[in-house]
Amino acid sequence: MHMTSARNLPSLQTRVANLRRRHLDLAARIEDELQRPAPCSMSLQDLKRRRLRLKDQIARHETVMRNPNGAQFPLGAA
Questions:
Q1: Nearest of 64, 74, 49, 48 to residue 13 by alpha carbon
Q2: Distance between CA 48 and CA 40 in Å, rounded?
Q3: Considering the domain boundaries, does residue 2 fall inside one?
Q4: Which residue has the higher pLDDT, 59 or 10?
Q5: What's the superkingdom here (predicted)?
Q6: Residue 69 pLDDT more than 80?
Q7: Range(s) of the domain holding residue 42
């Protein structure tokens, strides 16, 4: 089980930045799909599910960054 410490914060910050970029990319893809004359509901559902998963990961990582020494869960926990 991998726990986070203060020395892992730079890599964690990089990870969060990457997740945020991916989240924004999915938001743009959702918007593009919505602009189509006949948006595909299955594609939208998949994109939104993936975006929510990223949002959850970002929130977990930000919790660890706020309290790196008190983190009581592994980063990979879902």
A1: 64
A2: 12
A3: no
A4: 59
A5: Bacteria
A6: no
A7: 7-66
